[in-house]
Amino acid sequence: MLNETSRILSQASKEGRKSLLETEAKTICIEYGIPVTKFELSTSEEEAVEFADAIGFPTVLKIVSQDIIHKSDIGGVIVDLKDEADVRQGYKRILQNVKKHNPKARIVGVLVQEMAPASTEVIVGATKDPQFGPAIMFGLGGVFVEVLKDVTFRVAPITEDDAVEMISEVKAYPLLKGYRNTPPADTDAITRILLNTSRLVIDHMEIKELDLNPVIVYEKGAKTVDARIILE
Ligand code: ADP
Ligand code: MG
Fold first, then answer.
1. What is the SS3 assignment for 35?
2. How far is the centre of ligand 2, averaged over its atoms, from the C-alpha of 169 (Å)?
3. For residue range 151-209, what is the model confidence (pLDDT) as tens digits?
4. Does 180 contact ligand 1 (Cβ within 6 A)?
5. How many CB atoms lie within 10 A of CB 191?
């Protein structure tokens, strides 16, 4: 069952790569029961259109390159593409942006992915403490983590009680219970993601850092729209 994860990790290590591609990180997520947006890796404009048709509109395009870790910083992410013409234009634009900002980047392809509707965004992470080993991080996205540093940590492996406690102890917790136009978030879905992330980093100690940022949480279910994994 967990063969795909081992295969991806050993392939990266064979190539001397310290960071996984989004496609690889998300394939690992799927194997560990962490929900992600549907995706297909295209290597031509024609293929991007074909995949967008199959996945459905609106869609999202993203650059896939081992040399580009922060994709949106260089114009490597375009969201809300509404039809085939948008996809064709977006495909060209992403490649132009990459060429302009990082002409030496090795390009694997352009990822076509399901566009997740807006809702509450959370972040799930894992880091390694030299003394305690892997730790799991949780917080709400955007200003909560970036400005307010409203996050919480537990040393892995975590239990279900730990996960429930982590979710309820961040200051922004009331927002998960629903506010204004936002319905209450599925905290059980977040609990499962925290537990599965813990299982993943304990099974694979070669993972140095993991970042599911953001995970969009709905009234029912959640979807990871970006996943990053850095190896030792
Ligand atoms: P990076 O963090 O490498 O810049 P992301 O994949 O996180 O790139 O994309 C940047 C932002 O675009 C995300 O934080 C999210 O707001 C939005 N986004 C990315 N993918 C999707 C998606 N599939 N559905 C909806 N929004 C998305
Ligand atoms: Mg991101």
1. coil
2. 24
3. 999 999 999 999 999 999 999 999 999 887 778 999 999 999 999 999 999 999 999 99
4. no
5. 19
